[in-house]
Amino acid sequence: MTFDTLGLKAELLRAVAEMGYSKPTPIQLKAIPAVLNGGDMLAGAQTGTGKTAGFTLPLLQRLHTSTKPKAAGKPAVRALILTPTRELAAQVGESVANYGRYLPLSSTIIFGGVNIRPQINTLRKGVDIVIATPGRLLDHVGQKTLDLSQVEILVLDEADRMLDMGFIHDIRKIMALLPQKRQSLLFSATFSNEIKNLADKLLHKPVMIEVARRNTAAEQVSQTVYPIDKSRKRELLSHLIGSQNWQQVLVFARTKHGSNRLAQQLERDGIRSTAIHGNKSQGARTKALADFKAGRARVLVATDIAARGLDIEQLPFVVNYDLPNIPEDYVHRIGRTGRAGHTGQAISLVAGDETRLLQAIEKMLQKKITKEHVKGYEYKGEDTEKTKSAGAQPGRSNNNGRNANGRNSFKSKQRPGRSQSRYANA
Asked: For residue range 340-365, what is the model confidence (pLDDT) as tens digits?
């Protein structure tokens, strides 16, 4: 099956070919005809499955084939694509521009963290397609620089993450600004009850598409756990990167300050590293990602929110320096690698107090993750001994997997969700 068989226009097929794609992915095979048909759609797909092209290509075609006359010399906003993060908005915007390069349609990207004035100037000229994060979009609505009353197609990309980030109220406000008669497309990596409730309110008799099992990790990704004392995590990470000559590694840390500190420590170990998180300016985040993609930095240390939507082709390694508190976030994290048919490796450095988090992840995956040890970096529970000698209270879980009664590491009673990361309070 090729893109030629999906009913796309010659201009779109030319753009797809120039980007080096010849065969559609499973989500594209199902989504493109469904969107072209004009109905609503609820699609479940892991990141890296090609879903962006799955809605961008048919969206462009539908707008082009139903071109409306310009009002007052400028086009009205006819399509709105909502994303949870700035990075994802930028990448979706880039895809819209690339796939639509031979069509007479205009688009713009709107997100916070940058000067709003250039965005206002672009909107005043008129655009067909807006790619936006919810907060900045509502800022424009409040300033009356954006009119959503003519939107024909709405896309909610990574809707599960938008709900996780607390955007549900913003989404409801945006829904109230849109015309009742429109085509709505909702994409989500997982289908929680909240997503189902949102879909019930947003979609009308939607086509249901699901190309990945619910809450499962990418099948192309090998997963390995290294039990390690918390105090030696950074040392082990540097050893793995250096001894195995890893050249492109995305590392997840739990906190913003922890991300910065880890990147600085890796730099001192001689490993070019950079960090990306919400406290950084948009310019700094863009530069960090560009350096990583270009190979100027071997390691990109990121928090979950900042890394959501990162599009890095053929990323070979993802490392969980800190395990996530929410098991589903593990799936999102390791979905950064093993994309578009390529294989990848997901490595988790797990201290004793993260055992319950690991168990929750394995329960969700319905399988045990392989545990390995590196000679010289075996787990010893040394952090626990330090904490114990410092006067731990009986019955309380200590820092590194050994409780106050002296029981060892991977039987920790640490409650899931309470971060005891080395960098938690950095």
From this structure: 556 789 999 999 999 999 999 998 88
In a domain, 420, yes or no: no
Q: How far apart are CA 336 and CA 323, in angstroms?
A: 15
In a domain, 105, yes or no: yes
Determine the 3-state secondary structure of 130 from DSSP: strand
- Domain boundaries, position 127: 3-210
Measured CA to CA, the distance from residue 413 to residue 389 in angstroms comes to 19
334, 305 contact by CB (below 8 A): no
In tens, the pLDDT along 160-184 reads: 888 888 898 999 999 999 999 999 9
Q: Which two tokens stand for residue 84?
A: 């949870």
Q: Is the pTM of this model over 0.85?
A: no
Q: Assign 240 a pLDDT band (cuts: 50, 70, 90).
A: very high
Exposed / middle / buried, residue 137 (Cβ in 10 Å: 0-12, 13-18, 19+): buried
Question: Both ends of the chain: CA-CA distance in Å?
Answer: 52
Type of residue found at 423: Y
Q: Are residues 263 and 373 in the same domain?
A: yes
Q: Please give the angle made by the CA atoms of 354, 357 and 363, to the nearest 5 degrees.
A: 140
> Three-class SS of residue 172?
helix
Q: Say if CB 1 and CB 88 are below 8 A apart.
A: no
Sheet holding 221-227, edge to edge: 273-276, 299-302, 249-252, 317-320, 344-350, 221-227, 370-371
Residues 153, 79 contacting (CB under 8 angstroms): yes
